[in-house]
Write a structure and sequence with these properties.
It is built from 15 helices and 15 strands. By secondary structure, it is an alpha/beta fold. It has three domains: 21-269, HUPs (Rossmann fold); 304-413, no CATH class; 428-474, no CATH class. It has a four-stranded parallel beta sheet, with helices on both faces. Strands 5-6-7-8 form a four-stranded antiparallel beta sheet. A hairpin with a 4-residue loop joins β1 and β2 (14-19). The longest helix has 24 residues, at 319-342. The chain is elongated, with a radius of gyration of 27 Å. It binds one RNA strand through α1, α5, α7, α10 and α12.
Length: 476
RNA sequence: GGCGCGGUAGCCAAGUGGUAAGGCCGGGGUCUGCAAAACCCCUAUUCGUCGGUUCGAUUCCGACCCGCGCCUCCA
């Protein structure tokens, strides 16, 4: 069943309609995090794009089967857990849990399956055995197993690499840094499927036909994607940096064995910049969700900002942008609140509108069309705001219909609205001051009234007068 | 060097061969005792530079300048 949803495919470098077999789920695999520390906002940009993609599929009426792995065995997790003197499991469990908490705060739908590499060693060993059998892999003297890149004729097709250049790149690129353990390889381009145990790995080794060791990075995704979703995926997703070598290697591994395409569609999201600069540890701009919360930003604003640029364009993440995102979010809430009032509903009723089944888009058709057109979220947001301005006063029934359509869009975008009810408790002293001000104002003693207002402001409280009475708001 | 992406108002960011969405900020107005909040309105004769194609280009082509990514384990 073809849908109207179309998406850019990295392999063919063109837009393709998303297709799914009748009655089937759309099966897609996303390369997940390496759990050796907190994920940063750049990681989350990628995962959020995938989240919006999945939600958009659901709104389009497509069932989804979403698999995202946890990489829990690699150089970094092993090194760091050893350094901290804890077991690999305890270490990766801790960071997996943190990742889950961040995801929940960013309102991401959990994948249907979240396999970890350590829990799928047998599947990886099996795939490596098959690769050796069909002549695409070889064992080295130390018990490591390598993929013979020259044996796979289409190597480089995803990244569109020139095979000639590939042969010589080792001399011209900066890849010379880890030559130390490369002497076992037949060719500089060959990559490890299985790494023989080394002393610094500590107890983190598993038995295999080639001796104790651990799987290479690329093999885990090939093995787990195949295990959960079959030989050919409907879509495979990740950050743009995974195109080469990770996804290229996955293709080489899986397709050498199955003789079938690994994925019908490849989805890659562009990188994030911070304040116009690339993110890097040395610049100190690798923000985590925790960092931003400490600075007083809400996860909702972070989510809004991270999805507010087109996924194939680099996005500039700035503090101003975060404030703008927050204001935009508030504007959305006001707009929805006004519609809710016209439909005789309350903000607490909003949740019942946020769901993927939509009957009619009405004036929000253009916003939905934008999402279907290569997941153009910025355009969709633009249409939501501009269409909303046309509404004005409507009937109860019409506003109900509008809310349903808007609820579908907000479901697709995954924006959490009306979810900050934790009103800060107002101290007695502030209550008294505010009451005194109100009294003075009623007595038309505006001088005293304004003095009370200034006093409240000094204590960080803003008075908002209404027709009858007032409310207090905590100023940051 | 190879492959790829981008340069649109103060900031962020869509978009189209026919003359620039949206958000933020700023300005003006309505309301208010004054504010705040809310609501309404306004804000790029112009899309990195220079050429070319075209009746017409920000949109296509070429050159150049600037920024960015990947080129073996980084989403």
């Amino acid at each position: 069943m073809p849908t109207k949803l179309q998406l850019f495919d990295t392999l063919s470098r063109s837009l393709h309609p998303i297709k799914v077999k009748d009655g089937d789920s759309f099966r897609f695999y996303c390369c997940g995090p390496t759990v050796y520390g907190p994920a940063h906002i750049g990681n989350f940009r990628t995962f959020l794009v995938q989240d919006v993609f999945r939600r958009t599929l659901e709104v389009a009426g497509i069932k989804t089967h979403h698999v995202r792995n946890i990489t829990d065995v690699d150089d970094k997790t092993i090194r760091q857990s050893q350094a901290e003197g804890v077991t690999l499991k305890d270490f990766t469990d801790k960071w997996t849990q943190k990742f889950h908490e961040d995801c929940a705060q960013l309102n991401m739908l959990p994948p249907h399956e979240e396999p970890s590499a350590v829990q799928h060693i047998p599947q990886q060993i099996e795939l490596i055995e098959q690769l050796i059998e069909c002549g695409h892999a070889y064992t080295a003297e130390d018990g490591s197993v390598y993929y013979k890149v020259s044996s796979f004729k289409n190597y480089g097709k995803l990244a569109h690499l020139d095979p000639q250049a590939l042969k010589t790149q080792s001399t011209s690129s900066s890849g010379a840094t880890n030559l130390a353990d490369e002497y076992e390889r037949e060719s500089i381009n060959d990559f490890a499927l299985w790494k023989a145990k080394k002393p610094e790995d500590g107890p983190n080794a598993w038995p295999s036909p080639w001796g104790e060791g651990r799987p290479g990075w690329h093999i885990e995704c090939s093995a787990m994607a195949r295990h959960y979703l079959g030989d050919t995926l409907d879509l495979h997703a990740g950050g743009i940096d995974l195109i080469f070598p990770h996804h290229e290697n996955e293709i080489a591994q899986t397709e050498a064995v199955t003789q079938k395409p690994l994925a019908h569609h490849w989805l890659h999201s562009a990188h994030l910049q911070v304040e116009g600069q690339k993110m890097s540890k040395s610049l100190g701009n690798l923000y985590t969700l925790e960092d931003l919360k400490t600075q007083g930003h809400s996860p909702a604003a972070v989510r809004y900002l991270l999805i507010s640029g087109h996924y194939r364009q680099p996005l500039n993440f700035t503090a101003d942008g975060l404030k703008a995102a927050n204001s935009a979010l508030q504007k959305l809430e006001k707009l929805i609140k006004s519609l809710l009032e016209q439909a005789n509903k309350y903000p607490s009723d909003w949740a019942s509108y946020v769901k993927p089944d939509i009957k009619a888009w009405g004036i929000f058709q253009s916003a939905w069309d934008s999402l279907c057109n290569d997941l153009n979220i910025p355009s969709a947001l633009g249409h939501i705001f501009s269409s909303s301005r046309e509404i004005g006063q409507t009937t109860e029934e019409k506003s109900h219909t509008l809310l349903q359509a808007l609820g579908g869009l907000i479901y697709a975008l995954g924006l959490p609205l009306f979810e900050t009810p934790e009103k800060v408790a107002i101290p007695d002293s502030i209550q008294k001051l505010a009451a005194a001000r109100w009294q003075a104002k009623q007595n038309k003693d505006f001088k005293a009234s304004d003095e009370f207002r200034d006093e409240l402001l000094k204590h960080g409280w803003q008075v908002l007068d209404q027709k009858e009475g007032y409310t207090l708001e905590k100023k940051p």
